[in-house]
Design brief:
Number of helices: 0
Strand order of the largest sheet: 1-4-8-12-15-18-23-26
Largest sheet: 8 strands, parallel
Radius of gyration: 23 Å
Number of strands: 34
Shape: globular
């Protein structure tokens, strides 16, 4: 509970609460300016001294849930925690979160903190799973304007990154940025899936909280996670300050939901599958593609040349479909073909199928 300290080069494990805790306090005298500007650099948090085996911090018994590195203000203990920097740590193997940023006071503020170039749920080599029990990185309870950048986040028990608020208490978690992270893969871009979503906005390991608007998810690789790549979930009933206006742009989102095909790359509702339009809603598909449709092909015996027919119901006004096949097929794949505005669009070709394969279809409109 102080400012401008550096915690560097330590191996921190087996503590019953957080491995490293930056707890905000209210500014007062010069001796207590808040918990601001602290530097957490190059530590092993939740592992042995080799960074290879889990020796977890925290515990998973309510009411208190602790984990690896936490920047926070606690309920009934108002304070501020601003401008802290968490850089190049291994935060893996902990009971609950790997890294958490949370604000739970009646008054106070947790903002402008940075988490950069950390391994979260991954061992020190960058290639071995060493997951945290819940979220890899958690931002919640009204924390805002925090930056999560250039981290590798995989193998965690809940979501890779979770951003949630708590509406009944007026805690709106907003304006946080996820930039250039690798979520669900290791440093070689091999699969390192998180058990739930890659990024969960408005939910925490399957529990819906909502109230997380105006966050930015940009330039990330989000792949191979067990459920959805990016899930944006609103609490019910929806209010004016719920999970709205989040910007998801320029990410590489692929191979999520590969175990359960009901999950998507991006899902704007909690239930798996494509969310239908609201009554009377008209989507503008003109720039530059429409919504993707995934088709799963049944397993075919190895080396059995088989003619496969794919077909999709045409959407009104559609002029073109583009097909993308999984790497388990050698092709060739036509780049696109034109259909009528109604009826069934089909494509046939012969290919020796050996495993279940997925195809992605992008609908283009004039």
């Amino acid at each position: 509970m102080s400012s401008n300290n550096r915690v560097q080069g330590l191996c921190i494990h087996n503590f019953p609460h957080d491995g490293i805790s930056i707890q905000g306090i209210l500014p007062g005298t010069a001796r207590h300016p808040g918990s601001n500007g602290n530097q957490i650099y190059w530590n092993l948090v939740g592992t042995d001294v080799r960074g290879m085996a889990a020796l977890p911090n925290g515990h998973d018994t309510p009411p208190g849930l602790w984990g690896g590195i936490y920047v926070k203000v606690l309920p009934n203990s108002p304070g501020i925690a601003l401008g802290n920097h968490i850089l190049e740590n291994v935060a893996s193997g902990n009971r609950i979160e790997g890294i958490g940023i949370a604000n739970c006071p009646d008054v106070g503020d947790v903002a402008n903190n940075r988490v950069e170039r950390c391994y979260v749920g991954i061992d020190i080599t960058g290639a071995g799973p060493l997951g945290n029990g819940h979220q890899g990185v958690y931002i919640g309870e009204g924390a805002h304007h925090n930056l999560i950048e250039q981290n590798w986040i995989g193998a965690n028990g809940f979501d890779g990154v979770g951003i949630v608020g708590f509406g009944p208490s007026g805690l709106i978690t907003h304006s946080n940025t996820l930039n250039q992270n690798r979520i669900g893969v290791d440093v070689n871009l091999n699969p390192m899936p998180n058990t739930w979503h890659g990024v969960a906005v408005g939910s925490y390991g399957g529990t819906v909280w909502g109230f997380a608007p105006d966050n930015v998810i940009i330039n990330n690789t989000i792949a191979w996670n067990i459920h959805t790549g990016v899930a944006v979930t609103e609490a019910r009933p929806v209010g004016d300050n719920d999970t709205s206006r989040n910007r998801i742009t320029q990410n590489a989102i692929h191979h999520n939901g590969h175990i359960d095909p009901g999950y998507l790359g991006i899902d704007l509702d909690f239930e798996p599958g494509v969310t239908p339009n609201d009554p009377g809603e008209v989507e503008d598909h003109r720039a530059p593609v429409g919504k993707p449709v995934r088709v799963k092909i049944q397993v075919i015996p190895p080396s059995a040349p088989t003619t496969v027919t794919l077909g999709w119901a045409a959407e009104p006004g559609a002029t073109q479909y583009s097909v993308y096949g999984s790497t388990t097929l050698t092709g060739p794949f036509p780049a696109a073909w034109t259909i009528e505005a109604s009826g069934i669009a089909g494509l046939t070709w012969s290919e020796p199928l050996t495993v279940a394969s997925k195809f992605y279809v992008v609908v283009a409109f004039p």
